[in-house]
Amino acid sequence: MNNTKIMLGNEAIARGAYEAGVKVSAAYPGTPSTEVSENIAKYDEIYAEWSPNEKVATEVAIGASISGVRALACMKHVGLNVASDPLYTMSYIGVNGGLVVNVADDPGIYSSQNEQDTRMVARAAMIPVLEPSDSSEAKEFTKLAYELSEEYDTPIILRTTTRLAHSQGVVNLEDRKEIEDKPYERDMRKFVMMPANAKMRHVKVEERLNRMAEDASSFAINKAEYNDTKVGVITSGIPYMYVKEVMPEASVLKLGCVHPLPKKLIKEFASKVDKLYIIEELEPVIEEQVKSWGIECIGKELFTVQGEYSANMIREKLLSQKVEYVENAAPMRPPILCPGCPHRSTYSVLKKLKIHAAGDIGCYTLGAVAPLNVVDTTVCMGSSISTLHGMEKAKGREYIKNWVATIGDSTFLHTGINSLMNMVYNKSTGTVMILDNSTTGMTGHQEHAATGRTLKNDETYAIDLYGLCKAIGVEHVYIVDAFDTAELESRIKTEVARDEVSVIICKSPCALLKSFVPKGKCFTIPEKCVNCGQCLVPGCPAIVRNEDNVITIDDTMCNGCGLCMQRCKFDAIGFKERV
After folding, report:
1. Would you say residue 546 has pLDDT above 90?
2. What local confidence, expressed as pLDDT, does residue 1 receive?
3. How far apart are CA 145 and CA 154, in angstroms?
4. Residue 456 CB partners (closer than 8 Å, separation 6+)
5. Does the structure show a pLDDT above 60 at 531?
6. Dist. CA 148–CA 103, nearest whole Å
7. Which residues are CB-contacts of 154 (< 8 A; sequence separation ≥ 6)?
8. Per-residue pLDDT at 2
9. Given strand 129-130, what is the order of strands in its sheet?
10. What is the pTM of this model?
11. What is the distance in angstroms between the CA of the first residue and the CA of the last residue of the chain?
12. What angle do CA 86, 153, 103 make, to 5 degrees?
């Protein structure tokens, strides 16, 4: 039997959790971490769920850990912000069963609203961090994280990045290790963080980190590779792979534990090399600590704190090798809503009415770009509703009569509910539009609490968004088909003029859902077309004006949403039903 498999980094983390005997996993989908949970769900031995947000997911994992089993919480770097409240306190509490939090950073901001460094958060929270460099290490470091978690009585952060999460490598598969549940014993001083207990636990945390920092110098995952000692490099994670590719002859100290740092090992390595470089993506977390110990090194003087590193960057900075880049090797494709996306229909109506949108995190953020140009603000998950509320309180009712808040169904359940409650409680008057496409679209169509299915694909109760909004105290709640532009336009006009909180649920499924079946295809009728271009205004990629100035529809892309037909006043677009 072949016991090796090529795996994504995320898939390897899931395998590591399985082999480590994890019994509970909770997450909220967020690129680049999503596939960890999707792969964990394939293991029957592990209970896995999509939680409404990362705070809840972390608290689920915490509960499992306290009860005595190994547990995992997964999220992207900005999800760690949402989870930080319980996590900072869990650092004081420690664990019973091993507790690991997998956090995927996004250097280069491929699919995020910022580029924060999880190591900075971990230092503030006093939580150790392991960082693998390839898929094989992703699996092994996950297993090690549980051992360290239980040995040092602490949660462990397993930090990855987009490059590791989504690149492939060979992984050796091993059997699952069934871990006996640890008995739960009531211990108020450990598990109840009231001030008197927290003061004592803080002392424990400092002792734990000092002990772990001392021990880290002998951790196998922190290893010195001595070659030519004229140049030494301290690095970790994916940058280690770039260093080995570009400078195979250099001496390298590869750090698998990036917090706390192995001070003794670093000092020893630095003393044996003539010139020391520190190569780390994003913030100078390692560099600043090393320099604080009086060790001379070169880091961010050469390397940026922005974006993702590469082998070519290291060649240019350290070896002064000019790298020739091929210009225009591939055509650029700007981000755009898919053909048949219901958000396009909603935003086209808002654009027609000259209404601004306080936006949120999701596919619908693309309503900010041409040709729709409707979304004016995007901050974080759930922020659109609070932003609109803040505008109204700052500038008055008249100011927001040409504003709405737009938020997706999954994001509304993530952190939008509290914001809507706040609008009702504090007598706001804005209009919230929930763009309900029946999925968590941006991260790849995951289930959520209103879809009626769990991560394990079991049927479950589906939260009724209409009923939820009513229960919060919103009197005026309306469900409108996102593609019924006439009804949608009428409803928006009525609600933005209303001096009360109102909610419009724009409901239509994502066109990429497996369950979605197109009704047919649209096609142009050239003899009726006057070339007014109104059908092009929403920016559907399926409809274009060609080089002969003729408007055509690509029937391989069109899924018959009919938005272009509704905009054409000359009946120059027809519809062919699906056979």
Report:
1. no
2. 45
3. 10
4. 41, 48, 49
5. yes
6. 17
7. 91, 94, 95, 127, 128, 148, 205, 208, 212
8. 65
9. 47-50, 24-27, 71-76, 99-105, 156-161, 129-130, 257-259
10. 0.93
11. 47
12. 50
